[in-house]
Amino acid sequence: MPEKTPQSVPRVYVLVCKGDNCSQRGNPERVRVGLKQAAREFPAHAVKVSYVSCLGLCGEGPNVLVVEGGSLFRRCDAQSAGEILQTVREKLGQHRS
């Protein structure tokens, strides 16, 4: 279950790996920026996109983890945001028409 913020809005955490191997295999900064821009569709504070030093799957990065439910996305790029945010939508109980 997503954490509740003080404003009673559920919050989902999305972690972008910024380890050395992920950084060499792709561009974690671009992935994070793409996710943050796409996450603007959600209420304020509903989605927290942060870096993590390593998710432990170094040969398959850049990796992104949606913490609630443990959904892991491998070999991500900026275009991966749509698929990742669909998972976030499901965690928040929101569905696009």
Helices and strands in order, then pairings?
Elements: E1 3-4, E2 10-17, H1 20-25, H2 28-38, E3 47-52, E4 64-66, E5 71-73, H3 81-92
Parallel strand pairs: 2-3
Antiparallel strand pairs: 1-2, 2-4, 4-5
Can you put this structure into words, describing what you see?
With 97 residues, the protein is an alpha+beta fold. It is built from three helices and five strands; from the N terminus they run E-E-H-H-E-E-E-H. Strands 1, 2, 3, 4 and 5 form a five-stranded mixed β-sheet that branches. Strand 1 and strand 2 form a beta hairpin. Helix 2 (28-38) packs across helix 3 (81-92). The longest helix is centred in the C-terminal third of the chain and has 12 residues, at 81-92. The chain is globular and about 35 Å long. The chain starts with a strand and ends in a 5-residue tail after the last helix. The model has no long low-confidence stretch (mean pLDDT 86).
